## 1
Amino acid sequence: MRITVAHDFLPKTCTVRAARVMDHFGIGFEQGRHHLAEDLDLPIRSGDVVLFTGPSGSGKSSLMRAAALQLQGPSGGGVVSADAGEGPPGARVLWIEDLPAGDELLVDALPLETLDAMQLLAQCGLSEARLLLRRPCELSDGQRYRFRLARALAEKPDWIVADEFTATLDRTLAKVIAFNIRRLAERTGTGFLLATTHEDVAQDLSPDVQVRCGLEGTFEVVRAEARESPAAMGPAGRKKKESASRGSCGSARRPVATGRISLGGIIGVTDWR
Ligand SMILES: Nc1ncnc2c1ncn2[C@@H]1O[C@H](COP(=O)(O)OP(=O)(O)OP(=O)(O)O)[C@@H](O)[C@H]1O
């Protein structure tokens, strides 16, 4: 896939304060197009995990969006994505941030068999039983992000796109989710386009393609042909810690547990919030 990425600067009206900035710094409104990448070769294949990293403003979101739009088919918006790609056009692409969280209980929300739904939620970092009985609006931002990820995976799209990947998660959990995404990609064949400023997930994600964006407009594209097996690259400290109960969840009456400590990857209590 070859992509050209540029943003069109919008027309603006000069205000008093804008005029002061112009006078002070000797600049005017930018005009025309802001070119970020020209005919960049991204060796993306279906089912790949692609990670865009770099500091804020380096262009990772723009590049990722252009790549996703090209996989999706006709482009749109302010980002120009040009040229014929190698991948099949018209792939089904789900954007995590566009997915509605919905209003159903988590355990009911995925269009899968109960155990499969629970397993997927657990793999996405929602392995605490009581969370299954909540609605998405009763989750933290990080939990909702993980729920959206599970929701997206349950749809079995060709590609899942996530900007600010793992930004709302603590770093240990971010690594666990990255590791699980690698395994889910291999198991389901769904590809991932992920952008983040946090390079620390790269080792656990073990991306097929990593695009490192630099503030100087440079892009380093690395395709890992011979990847280490994910099992050998598990995140440090991935083993779950024993943890005490987090106290009452506010239920009126607590049913007696059936005796199982684990069901579909879900366990009674974890240290994840
Ligand atoms: N609509 C736009 N018009 C002009 N320039 C834009 C537009 N959107 C983004 N840019 C510029 O393009 C560059 C890349 O932006 P982009 O959002 O891709 O960066 P990023 O690496 O994802 O940053 P962040 O981590 O802060 O989200 C930045 O310099 C930004 O100011």
Note: Confidence is low (pLDDT under 50) at residues 75-87, 228-249.
## 2
Amino acid sequence: MKDCKLGIDHLVQTAILHKEVTGLEMKPTFDQPIFERIYKGLIVSCQALEDEPLYGAEVMAKMAKSAELGGAVGIRANSVMDIKAIKQVTRLPIIGIIKKDYDDSEVYITPTLKEVKELMEVGVDFIALDATRRPRPHGEQLESLVAYMKEKGQKMMADISTLEEAKYAASIGVDCISTTLSGYTSYSPQHQEPDFALVQEAAGELNIPVLAEGRIHMPSQAAQMLILGAHAVVVGSAITRPQLITERYAQEIKHTLLKNKLKSQTS
Ligand SMILES: CC(=O)N[C@H](C=O)[C@@H](O)[C@H](O)[C@H](O)COP(=O)(O)O
């Protein structure tokens, strides 16, 4: 009941905000209620790999609960173990992935049918998968994975790194795309900043929802993505990876103090 109220509150707030920002009435343009639930909201990616201090399902479930309390409208999570634990503590929509390295491919986000099936078994609202055109392990094909999920009625999110990949993913029938891999393929722009241009272009050209994801470190950047046309925004490290948050503080402090010292020496 509380979850339901939270969802309705979010939709009402979103509609008000949308009108204030754009001057337009927000119309529910998507048939699927799941897309309304996440519209113009913040999705928090709760992930820690085995070599990270916060690794473990119990910790990830606490992260997800904290995200929900803070106003997140969805959770992105990696592995069956984490997803199971997260589902025990929240009813927010879940974008599930399985990160797995195979020797014969660079693709590691839900690379093969095996991971797709594991995610379908645990049950997630969206399966996110690498939707670049790079070769997949064992010669598996993106098109067959998409067709399989469509046939089973499983919603999916295509993680892409360029506009061309976004357009191709849309053309083969994915439900939505996310800019997750911009900066993480050799041929996409290697920015330190989030890829604002890609989000704006993809949102302008595609008629499926486009989510902004990747290196969004500040609340203002998340809001900017939504104004540029993102359907929702996914933030991970800046909320759930304390070692990286600390690193950014430490570097900024070092850098600023050094700059200051040099300035005072030359003046
Ligand atoms: C490239 C890649 O493997 N991205 C992964 C995808 O699931 C995660 O490690 C990121 O944390 C997630 O995309 C959110 O991005 P950021 O942590 O920058 O807010």
Note: The beta strands are 42-46, 74-78, 94-97, 126-130, 156-159, 176-178, 210-213, 232-235.
